[in-house]
Structure of Glycosyltransferase:
Amino acid sequence: MRQRRGHAIMVAFPFQGHITPYMNLAMKLASKGFLVTFVHLEFIHHKLLSSLSEPDPFTMARKSGLDIRYTTISDGFPIDHDRVDDKYWEFMLLNFWIRVDEFVGKLIRSSDPDLVPFLVTDTLFTWQTAVAEKHNLLKVSFWTEPALVFSLAYHVQLLRENGHFPCKDHVEEEINYVDGVKSVNTKDLMPYLKECRSRTLVHKVQMKAFDEVKKADFILHNTVYELESGILSALNKIQPNYAVGPISFSRNLPASVTRTLWSESDCSVWLRSKPPGSVLYISFGSSLQDSKQIVGEIAYGLLLSKVSFVWVVREDADLPSSFRDEITERGLVVPWCNQIKVLSDPAVGGFLTHCGWNSVLESMWCGVPMICHPLDYDQPTNRKLVVDDWKVGINLCEGGCVEREEVCEKMDGFMNGGVSERLRKEMKKVREKLHDALENDGSSEANFEQFVKDLKAKLAANAE
Ligand code: UDP
């Protein structure tokens, strides 16, 4: 009997750190013969337009034969609505599914009846089950953070039974009872699991998302099996989990897709004038505003230090007024750049990062050791992996408070001293694991193949 073709319906979660890996997942699915309908929210499409990018990232991919369609849907709010308020996310949590449901219904009705549609959603979207049940669709959930973070959030009931959820704010205890997780101190838990954050919307979204993911047919992780094998094997005993990362560096795709929400400043000419390994790259990611205190202390720390640096600082950030004049040719301050290109530049020898998962993966892919200063979400837990487990980074501040003298001391020591030699040695091993995973016979490639096989079998059974 002829096998009917699968049709992946993908609605992108509207944050930079989620968009890039998700676009690459779309490409990978299309390269395995699936039809993909990729959807951006309209306001993201407009942001992409204004950052001078061509918003449809798949033009080249289509030219090389992949079947990826691009479209947009509205979230029901005006394009210029300020989407950082709780009201917006309350709506997304409770009512956005109705808009997706309408879209999916129309798409299925107008599609070739020979296609078998299924949903591929970001784990943090909370509408997957409602829409899938209504249209009898299989559900693939895509997790864009490390498996450790997934496992802790997945096991909140167990954390609750052990008195660690919601976790008292200043308690420091070891969590060593989650299958596959060796040990995590409660100080390294994601802040949304802490008592002081238990009434926040981020907490609600995460809790709902982890209720939903338990009903997913398949779970994909943007991590590498060799880095988190114990956790992934333990999760696999409960549901089918596949480590397929770092997906944004996948080989064998006909075109690369990078689309960022802001225009990129070119740092290459400036970097060319610097000796190899001499520049510290500094970025705190896309979604959190760096606090005025942190920006100030880092700026003064940089002025006291001798390191050369590229610093991604939003135009509206509060830099000390004399900073730009005083740094002269030692530093370059840009509002946004092509991070992977900067990290790949031979002049760059270190990365001061907030430990967003994409930044961590990109740094490890390029073999650049990190100075870590996590701010929120999964970042404190990611820091634990980078500094304590994999030993490819150090903490910016040991006491929690960022102070200029310590910033200066850490940066100078890191860029010039023996610390970075030790980190570089460990980094070489980790980098190798990432690169090996994406070789043709590597674990992430094999896992993706296995996922495609399992998915096709289940789609066929479901379509009967
Ligand atoms: N990024 C970039 N240019 C910049 C700063 C960041 O392209 O100037 C990209 C970076 O490569 C990464 C993403 O933005 O892919 C940030 O994701 P991450 O998970 O590190 O942090 P988030 O922004 O989600 O906090």
Notes: Residues 15-17, 20, 260, 283, 285-287, 312, 336-340, 356-359, 362 surround uridine-5'-diphosphate (CB under 6 Å). Residues 144 and 222 are 5 Å apart (CA to CA). The domain at 5-251+439-463 is CATH 3.40.50.2000 (Rossmann fold). The mean pLDDT is 93.
